[in-house]
Specification:
207 residues, four-stranded antiparallel beta sheet, 6 helices
């Protein structure tokens, strides 16, 4: 995706203006204040090291009065490998345009992921896994993430691993139920499960 010229960015929201003025200097502040992110430039300013990965590409067809129109549907995941991940999808006639739009949507859907060491077999205190069991659901797919000891790796399907890697999780057990061949729902269910890691905060936890 082409790099943005952030120097030419004219913020349209209060949060955007605060970021460009240097009054908000970290993404942690944004989530601590529970402020909505409506401009992708905010993410580009505060997390310039995000990496994106295309995890699903499909061809969708729409019947119109002018005939049948085919478009690419792309699902991407973005993350910094250190506690932040986003998931987005988009459709466009050109593959490149679909990818660019999906990356923008994934950045706008960025969430913090609280990591930890919740496995009774490990208890190393390092944020290599998750702190407790979490579940996510999308469509008919349900994904459960469970803490695993260091060295276990990511035990799950490739689509689940892609989302977890971008979030910075290195060891976890997973269980997926439902129509897991629907890759977009599997990715969404994993993303929804990761959202749940932020619902409980303990003194020993860190993002």
């Amino acid at each position: 995706m082409a790099s943005r010229d952030l120097g030419l960015w004219e913020p349209r929201t209060q949060l955007g203006r605060l970021v460009k003025q240097g009054k908000v200097t970290s993404i942690d502040e944004v989530f601590a204040l529970n402020l909505p992110i409506r401009e992708v430039e905010i993410i580009d300013y505060l997390l310039p090291n995000l990496v994106h990965e295309v995890i699903d590409v499909g061809l969708v067809q729409t019947q119109t009065d002018a005939g049948e129109i085919s478009r690419f549907r792309v699902v991407t995941v973005v993350g910094n490998g250190d506690g932040y991940v986003g998931l987005g999808s988009a459709k466009a006639k050109q593959m490149r345009n679909a990818i660019d739009k999906a990356v923008v949507n994934a950045k706008l859907n960025l969430i913090p992921v609280r990591r930890g060491c919740g496995s009774w077999e490990c208890r190393c205190g390092q944020p290599h896994s998750i702190a407790f069991r979490v579940k996510g659901k999308a469509g008919s797919v349900r994904v459960t993430l469970m803490p695993a000891p260091k060295g276990t790796g990511l035990v799950g399907s490739e689509i689940v691993k892609s989302v977890l890697r971008r979030a910075g999780i290195r060891d976890v057990w997973t269980r997926a139920e439902g129509e897991t061949r629907t890759l977009i729902n599997t990715a969404k269910a994993t993303y929804e499960a990761l959202k749940q890691t932020y619902t409980v905060k303990l003194p020993s936890m860190r993002i």
